[in-house]
Specification:
The protein has 101 residues and is α+β, with helices and mostly antiparallel strands. The protein has four helices and four strands, in the order E-H-E-E-H-H-E-H. It has a single domain, classed as 2-Layer Sandwich (Alpha-Beta Plaits), CATH 3.30.70. Strands 2-3-1-4 form a four-stranded antiparallel β-sheet. Strand 2 and strand 3 form a beta hairpin. The protein is globular, with a radius of gyration of 15 Å. The model has no long low-confidence stretch (mean pLDDT 95).
Length: 101
């Protein structure tokens, strides 16, 4: 199942402006890779940032939002950011469903 993870932090907690946030951020990718199986993350499809919006967008293939929640806590994403986890669908699958009805 695909999920979008939207993590928003305040400017004062931005890794560009905050040494503690920078340290946490620099470790996130490695921690995500190391714990991917533990949290039933099949694949990280993308990790994007909007620097001026102070938002990270992560696209994951995972078993459940609860596992993603635990991963966000474990790797430190929730330390500096408010996190929203949203189930998403591939557009082609939606198009096929629309054509079938």
């Amino acid at each position: 199942m695909l999920f979008g993870v939207f993590a928003i932090h305040s400017p004062d907690l931005c890794p560009m402006n905050n040494k503690n946030s920078k340290k946490i951020f620099l470790e996130i990718q490695g921690k995500m890779k190391a714990t991917q199986k533990k949290f039933n993350i099949t694949k990280v499809l993308g990790f994007y940032m909007s620097v001026l919006e102070h938002e990270w967008i992560i696209i994951l293939d995972a078993k459940s939002a609860h596992d993603i929640e635990q991963m966000c806590i474990h790797v430190g994403i929730s330390t500096t950011s408010t996190v929203k986890i949203v189930p998403i669908n591939d557009m082609q699958k939606v198009m096929q469903a629309l054509k079938a009805t």
